[in-house]
Amino acid sequence: MKPRVTVITLGVNDLEKSLQFYRDGLGLPTQGIIGREFEHGALALFDLQHGLKLAIYPRNDLAFDAKVPLSVPNATECTVGHYLKNKAEVDAVMEQARQAGALITDQAHDRPWGIYSGYFQDPDGHLWEVVWDPRFETEIIE
User: Fold this and answer.
1) CATH 3.10.180.10 for the 7-66 domain, yes or no
2) In CATH, what number does 75-139 get?
3) Which of residues 93 and 2 earns the better pLDDT score?
4) 140 band by pLDDT with thresholds 50, 70 and 90
5) What are the domain boundaries of the chain?
6) Closest by alpha carbon to 25, among 121, 134, 142, 106?
7) Alpha carbon distance 24, 117 (integer Å)
């Protein structure tokens, strides 16, 4: 396996509501919902950096497709990290997420290990960490 990720898929309860959150609230580019013509196939893809995609897919269809039982969501199983160039950008994204309907679980603040970060949950409870880390400033790509 090569050391790369090309798609991150989040299981969602309401595809339309999640589409609105990510597209309209956070401003992620997308063609909208595709695959409606297929049973268990509707999803939305968002273009991220360097060909990386974020997919949202109904939880029940994801469980069906992967042949795993549908289980109770747990926010601490995984987080999605969004690194930014400075504290002001972190604060701006946290506010954008709040205005889009995210639940702010931890306001951005300085952490003892030298970063500045905060957490929010999307409408389905997926946990996002918005981060400024001075060690990675030169690696952040627009």
Assistant:
1) yes
2) 3.10.180.10
3) 93
4) low
5) 7-66, 75-139
6) 121
7) 23
